[in-house]
């Protein structure tokens, strides 16, 4: 044995000595020093960036480390090296590690914040770890970039926190164009993807792997053990567009979208958690397009989305689809998943649209139903019975349903061979995890290669005692999936804006504009009764509430600024609540408007119990501006030339200017044009956005000068509900023209001398693809 | 050591004993015995079929052998077990071997002759070896079958001889529909694929792997070390339609077609031989569609095909192509191949058809040029200089040309970066193999993963001394690629019909019909001068020549059979040469016609120095009949209602009735309709067939009753040449309407009082897909 040891040691030394190791550590404090250190680095080098703010820094990390001796670029103290301004980081070489940097207060001057390529020099075996990218948005939402852009092979993004992207482009993208970037085995693991607000249009995925044009490539990207929290950018949280990607052990927490196999085939979706919210229909699950995907051991809780956003959406394809549209689903396996308290969790033939053949070309008709697919050994549990746990939007003969079980609390549903109602109970292991209280005795179907499903959700072996559903063993320990210390960096703690609001009293003697400018994030400005004259637009770039001190004796704000300027100028990140006030113009101004450009983030606006009058526009959203929430509640809007205009996105590429618009208990009187004008253009079945609720409101003497003759213009908006309103003496042709095929509804409206409310089933829109 | 040995022996015995071995051999002589033996078989069983003819036998070989102890079904003597009549063979199970059977004189009653599946029971690890399938055709060419149909995984077809398929359907097909049949690693190795005649339309590949609808699947089929000899069925000899297939070491000998990566990606085409013929433009090479294929170490000699049939055709794709059309070429590597005496061997953007945008929909326009592809380290050698060794049908900026060399004997050509004219010599190693006489000193380009090209054409290592071209070492030994003992069975020898012709003298006293019926294959019937009266159609089902004994004193045959019956009835395999005769009808009969149905094989007809008169039709080809060669030389056709009609395929699916039609030195006089009527319908860019040559002939007083007003109607025929003819006093609108975009030409014709000869560039045809 001794001899062997000596030989092994000698061998080790021999191998080790072949490679010149550099264990030196060099600290750099300026860009020039950093550049020099990179140029001088050799395997084993450590470059330490000094704490502090690095402004306008473009790191070009070129080098060649080795597997045992990588070259490392790290923060002196993780999180205390701030990269801001026009900055980015690009890798070119092998075995390079970046550790502990913090990107904030800036944006990339290039197409990416972090990229695994410099010109044609693609990175391999490189790593970004323990870093943060936060709100590093380009100035306008139509300026595209990626925050992390993969090329090459075997690169890793791990233990990072990434949040707040609002401009166009997926947060993370894997590029596959070129043989150097296929079979990449990249790893995106243990990250925390924090909130991404809705973009109001396409191209806002959190992760996109490939594009349709490279969807034939073998990718083998692993996305595992990440937390996706409120990733609401668009309908796809993850868009897999290549072959052999794997999605394992991720937690999708209240994220408005789905994990979608959009293009490409043979992906594995195993052991993920999808956690919804009782009231949120935007939170989806898994949406399947294409061939050979295996969806196993997933746990889906409280998901209420439908159709494209169903807990499981197995789509119809377009026969012989072109490369960038919808491939037929074939050879898919959905096995050993659990759906707990989801609404109609299993939906097949989603996107079936034969009924739209008159408004769409044949190449857009999804009539190819799923075939040669197996749905087996799944478990559905409902605390309250579901009348349609399985929804067939088209024929489902191509699907082999085997040994699925449901506890539907006795509620009847359309029976289906292979879905058996049985009685079993579930225990809450934690708030979000329910596991069967007893071993479920139902037989397990053994399909082709089902022996490869050898572990359950918790990684326990299925060999000895297999069971239907995602969990085999009732005696499991809490895996703490929402413990945020398991994801992201070891230093960043999410900045929870305190809800303790500073209250600032303002009287007529004060300068209201200054008070607002000086106020802290989240402040409340409380106005004494009286009249406040404003002569210049007040910029709103933070969260702020302006209200009357005494709601029974409202203050009045009179705006006398320039024509076509707003009293309140909504800046990026501006969140204004206006409450119990009167706001008056002089007929030529706007009450509220976004910036005309550089809306790098969204704004929100809430108006309650106010009276707004004598403006040219009540609200004008300029092109490229976006608001997640706009609401007018209990307010009066009167004597204005225009009302609420959110219709500046006229390119018909699916973009729109606001996600949620709510009008409740309001009175609109003598609003002459664009009473409500809310627009989304471009045919894209997967867009699920734009929401307008108009209820319990009255509209009178409005629309006299409206060119298109429609009082509430909602063209192309997907979700519209108009109910319990009264329309009196509005000289228009139509109160509204609703889109029947989408989620457009109306009820209990009283219409007198105001035109008709018409529903058109299939709206003709411009094709986007 | 002794202990170890004992232990190993014990272990072996233990493992061996776990599996019940059956070394028994059972001989069977009847279908019932065979069925019983199969039912009783266990691992190791050998079932021996008795020599003799087995008629109408449907073998269902179900069983479960093991890797070490397969179940074998073998001929008592290989080749002496004849399977004939309505017979087929299907496998269902594991580790089953069939050895030595001979399928002939029959056809499959099912969709396949040999199939690796019985109902839903797919075969795995099964083998067909040392068998022959010969002329086992269904009765009509539109009746589809496959002769070997793969399903499941790890099945093998080896050392078989397979020839003579003329009905619709690839000879061998691999099916990939269903997860059980993907990643199949089937092996098609060491076979001899003998002649397959042209089918006259699509679906006559020798091997097809998958279909477009399963083209996203990983297939991994290996096609290696096979000989393809005169595989002329259609434009594709091998049609690869799935991913990761490998084509290695095959010999394509004078086969009219190409190896095509029609759908699917990442195939390997390595070390194959493509051997052409000086004068045959139908013999192609390698045609590339799709992504990521590697074409390396191939040797291509004497190939004269162009465009779709070029020695290397890299195609243009359709942007965002639908699943069944043409994908763009991307990420392809063409390296270390040798083209010797090929015409314009490297063609890029093949199929570019923007010029046809007026007659084709956008979804048929191939405008997507090859991108991200590398063409490097290839060698071109021309004994006679080639002015265009590289043809760019569209832009070639997407291709990286590196370190390619050409010896063009000083002939200038369009220069191209990356193709260097240098001087080097080649030696003939054998008739068909030329290797460099000296080591070529040119630098080798090292592209991405080029280190995987570690061997050359002959399997010699490239590690020590790499070189441009397919061969690294000048000192190589003949690998005898055309030694037929290397391919196919160990018992079958190809039946070369002797060219020693029996001469049979016939006088007016003899019964001509009986003499013809009795004649051997290849006989010559020589007629004394005089008149021969025939009252019934004479069937021609073999190779036979009928001629006058004295060409200066021609015999006359008068046919007085029923109206609309032919003097000579062309049966399957009928090959008639008629020479120096007069053939006369009584106005209502046909001189020649095919069978009306059951044309299970083609017929050929050659008429020289004859006078044919007073028929309703000279030649009538019925629907589903097909002739490879029809020629009229030095003959007179006169006073007939119709001439030569080969236009029965009116379904517009690309089929046609004859491959080669030649009219030379003939006189057509008073042929009133369908003077020549030759038709192919259906738009399919890859169809290259139908050939009509009309030269040095005269046409007078013809076409008076022709409805369409065209004398020589060649609608849809790809190759037409009309030259040096004289057209006089033919009352038609057009002599011919030629298709300019195809290979239709005319020259030196004299046209008097006979309408015009018009060329239309883009013919409007029915879309087939």
TrEMBL record, chains A, B:
Designated name of the protein: Alginate lyase
Pfam families, alphabetized: Chondroitinas_B
Origin organism lineage: Bacteria, Pseudomonadati, Bacteroidota, Flavobacteriia, Flavobacteriales
SUPFAM superfamilies: Pectin lyase-like
Coiled-coil segments: none
Source species, domain of life: Bacteria
Key words of the record: Lyase
GO molecular function: lyase activity
PROSITE patterns assigned: PROKAR_LIPOPROTEIN
Organism this protein belongs to: Flagellimonas eckloniae
SMART domains assigned to the protein according to its UniProt record, in alphabetical order: PbH1 (SM00710)
């Amino acid at each position: 044995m001794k001899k062997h040891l000596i030989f092994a040691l000698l061998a080790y030394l021999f191998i080790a000595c072949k490679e010149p190791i550099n264990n030196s550590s060099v600290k750099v404090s300026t860009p020039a020093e950093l550049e020099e250190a990179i140029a001088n680095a050799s395997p084993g080098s450590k470059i330490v960036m000094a704490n502090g703010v690095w402004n306008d820094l473009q790191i070009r990390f070129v080098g060649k480390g080795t597997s045992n001796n990588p070259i490392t670029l790290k923060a002196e103290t993780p999180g205390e090296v701030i990269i801001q301004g026009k900055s980015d980081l690009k890798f070119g070489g092998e075995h390079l590690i970046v550790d502990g940097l913090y990107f904030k207060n800036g944006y990339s001057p290039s197409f990416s914040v972090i990229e695994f390529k410099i010109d044609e020099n693609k990175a391999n075996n490189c790593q970004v770890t323990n870093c943060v990218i936060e709100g590093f948005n380009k100035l306008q939402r139509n300026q595209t970039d990626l925050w992390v852009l993969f090329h090459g092979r075997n690169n890793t993004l791990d233990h990072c926190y990434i949040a707040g992207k609002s401009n166009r482009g997926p947060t993370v993208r894997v590029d596959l164009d070129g043989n150097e970037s296929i079979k990449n085995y990249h790893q995106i693991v243990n990250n925390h993807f924090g909130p991404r607000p809705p973009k109001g249009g396409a191209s806002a995925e959190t992760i996109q792997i490939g594009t349709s044009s490279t969807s034939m490539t073998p990718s083998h990207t692993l996305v595992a053990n990440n937390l996706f929290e409120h990733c609401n950018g668009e309908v796809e949280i993850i868009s897999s567009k290549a072959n052999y990607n794997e999605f394992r052990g991720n937690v999708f927490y209240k994220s408005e979208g789905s994990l979608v196999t959009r293009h490409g085939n043979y992906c594995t979706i195993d052991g993920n958690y999808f956690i919804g919210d009782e009231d949120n229909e935007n939170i989806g699950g898994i949406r399947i397009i294409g061939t050979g995907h295996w969806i196993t051991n997933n746990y889906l809780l409280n998901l209420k989305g439908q159709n494209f956003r169903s807990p499981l959406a197995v789509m119809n394809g377009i026969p012989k689809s072109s490369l960038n549209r919808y491939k037929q689903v074939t050879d898919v396996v959905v096995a050993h998943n659990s759906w707990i308290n989801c609404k109609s969790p299993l939906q097949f033939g989603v996107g079936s649209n034969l009924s739209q053949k008159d408004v769409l070309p044949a190449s857009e008709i999804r009539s190819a139903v799923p075939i040669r697919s197996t749905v087996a050994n799944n478990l559905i549990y409902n605390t309250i019975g579901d009348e349609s746990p399985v929804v067939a939007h088209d024929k489902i003969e191509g699907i082999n349903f085997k040994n699925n079980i449901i506890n539907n609390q006795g509620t009847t549903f359309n029976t289906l061979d292979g879905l058996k109602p049985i009685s079993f109970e579930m225990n809450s292991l934690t708030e979000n995890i329910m596991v069967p209280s007893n071993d479920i005795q139902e037989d397990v179907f053994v399909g082709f290669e089902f022996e490869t499903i050898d572990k359950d959700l918790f990684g326990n072996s299925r060999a000895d005692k297999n069971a239907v559903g995602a969990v085999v063993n009732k005696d499991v320990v809490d895996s703490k999936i929402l413990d945020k210390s398991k994801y992201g960096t070891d230093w960043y703690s999410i900045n929870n804006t305190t809800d303790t609001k500073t209250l600032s009293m303002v009287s007529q003697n004060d300068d209201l504009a200054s008070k607002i400018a000086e106020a802290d994030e989240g402040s409340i400005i409380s106005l004494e009764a009286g009249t406040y004259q404003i002569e210049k637009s007040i910029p709103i770039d933070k969260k702020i509430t302006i209200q009357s001190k005494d709601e029974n004796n409202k203050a009045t704000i009179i705006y006398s600024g320039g024509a076509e300027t707003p009293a309140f100028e909504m800046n990026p990140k501006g969140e204004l609540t206006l409450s119990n006030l009167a706001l008056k113009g002089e007929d030529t101004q706007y009450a509220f408007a976004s910036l005309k450009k550089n809306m790098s983030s969204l704004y929100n606006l809430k108006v309650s119990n106010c009276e707004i009058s004598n403006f040219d526009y009540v609200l004008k959203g300029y092109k490229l501006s976006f608001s997640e929430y706009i609401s007018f509640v209990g307010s009066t809007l009167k004597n204005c030339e225009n009302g609420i205009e959110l219709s500046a996105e006229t390119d018909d590429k699916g973009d729109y200017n606001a996600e949620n618009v709510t009008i409740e208990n309001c009175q609109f009187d003598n609003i002459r044009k664009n009473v409500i004008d809310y627009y989304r253009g471009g045919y894209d079945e997967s867009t699920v956005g734009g929401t307008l609720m108009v209820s319990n409101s009255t509209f009178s003497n409005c629309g006299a000068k409206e060119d298109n003759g429609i009082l509430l213009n909602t063209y192309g908006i997907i979700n519209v509900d108009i109910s319990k309103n009264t329309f009196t003496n509005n000289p228009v042709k139509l109160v509204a023209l609703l889109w029947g095929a989408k989620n457009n509804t109306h009820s209990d409206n009283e219409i007198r001398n105001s035109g008709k409310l018409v529903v058109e089933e299939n709206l003709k829109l411009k094709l986007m693809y």
